[in-house]
Sequence to fold (135 residues):
Amino acid sequence: MNVMRNVLTNYQYDSINSFTRRTEELSALVSRMEQKINNAIQLTASIESHARLGAELLNVMDTSNAIVAKESGLVKVRSEEIRNAAEEQKNASGEIVKSVAGINELTQANASGALKITESADTVLSMSDVLKKPC
Fold:
């Protein structure tokens, strides 16, 4: 019976040692799994942080695009006003050129008339000299 007891005790001892080793292996696996899970949680938190930052950047870009669109609309309106003003100035310049041309023609006509008056005055003066002479 002692032999049986020894065999049984050795068997129990081996079983306990085997169970202990398996438990230690399982504990190591659980520890590695826990570390991998923690790494995954940290990675997920980092991804969420980057996603929030990306969303904020998109909001800033949307705001910037809205401002640019508004300002470009104002520039377009201002450009149209400048174009219209330039067209008006061109038309006014054309009218000024026409007026100067008209004044030039009138000045030429006045000069021609003044020349005719001078010729007529000379003729009258000559006639006056002729009439003053005794016959």
Summary: The mean pLDDT is 90. Residues 18 and 128 are 159 Å apart (CA to CA). The helical segments are 2-132. The radius of gyration is 57 Å.
